[in-house]
Design a protein that fits this description.
Elements (H helix, E strand, L loop, with lengths): L15 E7 L2 E7 L1 H7 L9 H7 L20 H7 L7 H4 L1 H11 L11 H25 L3 H25 L1
Antiparallel strand pairs: 1-2
């Protein structure tokens, strides 16, 4: 484990590290002790969405809410028992049930994704290079040749620095 991992919920130092493999995909969650206890995941037997649903106060108000997915036929009782949705249409049908649980499990409900640092650096470099090239083209079009020469020199210096960086990474 890497040092100083932050809690997925509150950004305190994580002391509980969970790894769950579902359909051959690894899902990792890092939690501080208090968030792990709040989520009820300090039990060595592990946890699942079904367990969280069962422990959640959300399920107390659902018995009279009988939802059925028109696409796959999954019913509220099946979803609560297994903690799994049957198809992509289930996300819409069971949204009112799933959203609060996910908000409690994660920070928000919107996936923001992650970009590897190398890819982010490369993407930023490409954007900066394109900006310099656009500025060079504008300067040439406006016949501002001194500015164009400056942009040309900046482009060459930037391309040299990027090439050197890539050579050290390889």
């Amino acid at each position: 484990m890497a040092d100083n991992l932050k809690c997925s919920n509150c950004n305190k130092e994580a002391t509980v590290h969970l790894t769950q493999i579902v359909n051959n995909k690894i899902h990792k969650v890092d939690l501080c002790e208090s968030c792990a206890q709040k989520k009820g995941v300090t039990d060595p037997q592990g946890f699942s969405l079904a367990d969280l649903l069962a422990k959640s106060n959300l399920t107390q108000g659902l018995p009279d809410l009988q939802l059925v997915c028109s696409n796959c036929g999954l019913e509220t009782a099946d979803f609560r028992r297994t903690g799994r949705l049957g198809c992509s249409a289930c996300f819409q049908v069971f949204a009112d049930v799933v959203r609060p649980v996910l908000e409690d499990m994660h920070v928000g409900t919107e996936h923001k994704g992650k970009v590897p640092e190398v890819a982010l650096t490369r993407q930023n470099s490409q954007a900066k290079l394109q900006t310099l090239r656009d500025s060079l083209a504008r300067a040439i079009a406006e016949e501002a040749y001194e500015d164009a020469a400056t942009f040309r020199d900046q482009i060459k210096a930037f391309e040299t620095a990027v090439a050197e960086l890539e050579a050290t990474e390889a």
